[in-house]
Amino acid sequence: MIDNGKYAIESKDLAIYYGDSLAVKDIDLQIEPQKITAIIGSSGCGKSTVLRSFNRMNDLVPSARVEGEIIFNGQNIYHPDVDPVEIRSRIGMVFQKPNPFPKSVYENVAWAAKINGFSGNIDELVEKSLVDAALWDEVKDDLKQNALTLSGGQQQRLCIARTIVVEPEIILMDEPASALDPAATFMIEELMHELAKNYTILIVTHNMQQAARVSDFTAFFSLDEEDRAGTLIEYGETNQIFTNPEFQLTEDYITGRFG
User: Fold this and answer.
1) For the chain, which terminus, N or C, has the lower number of CB atoms within 10 Å?
2) Rounded Cα distance, 47 and 228, in Å
């Protein structure tokens, strides 16, 4: 595998269209390895659109079109020779609403490993993934229970276990705690810090307090007033973005003057 150099993944001159409508433009992001990077910004500025472009989930939207490059392991993931299914196994995704399969807890995790060709000890792998997702102690006595009977927070941690069982390099999270109560949100945030020891995490969040708590780096997006396309305004270490932003627009958003 080709070394990507300094960054886990980076976008260059990224622009995304839905049909003839320009959704986002001029996105140059360099994501640091084994760090948590938050994308913040007002509704409709393209945060989730950009996040989904990092593992080609936008391919599933018929009208979507991507221009520019996203470089991962030394290659543009949008090159015609690149298999998007392979990309999604290396760059996993956790969605806003927990989406476990209507199967047992065990099968939710084991299935993901099996379809990716795992042929080792599946029991050990399932246990390790559930341990790493901070769920094992809560489900180990009944792995056959239907995943849909778990609480919302447990379901989201199960989805994280299902994501990491295939050992991706990057985990994308699209507002992973927005549907959860404060206690479950706290557990997800604590889990993110643990996962960042082994994975690169890129999270979209509308919660600025959450971004300040969990992330090492923050990217602030806003809408261009002329064409109403989302664009990257400022990107840097989270402490700098929140305490000494370079641009007035960033400060106005951080302090709640708009958004």
Assistant:
1) N
2) 14
The whole-number pLDDT of residue 258 equals 66
| Cα angle 173, 84, 8; round to 5 | 50
**Residue 33 pLDDT more than 50?**
yes
Tens digits of residue pLDDT in 51-109: 999 999 999 999 999 999 999 999 999 999 999 999 999 999 999 999 999 999 999 99
Could you tell me the residue ranges of all domains in the chain? 9-101+170-254
83 residue type, one letter: D
In this model, does residue 4 exceed pLDDT 90?
A: no
pLDDT at 149: 97
Structure confidence at residue 2 (pLDDT): 36
Q: Using alpha carbons, list the distances in angstroms from residue 183 to 166, 177, 187.
A: 28, 10, 7
Q: Which two tokens stand for residue 44?
A: 């409709």
> Is-contact 88 115, C-beta < 8 A?
no
Distances (CA, A) of 200 to 51, 75, 133, 165, 220: 13, 18, 15, 15, 19
Tell me what the mean pLDDT of segment 213-238 comes to.
95
Distance CA 20, CA 183 (A): 43
Strands of the sheet containing 170-174, edge to edge, are 75-76, 64-72, 9-18, 21-31, 230-237, 217-223, 36-41, 200-204, 170-174, 91-94
**Three-state DSSP class for residue 103:** coil
The CATH number given to 9-101+170-254 is: 3.40.50.300
- Residue corresponding to tokens 């989406």: 99
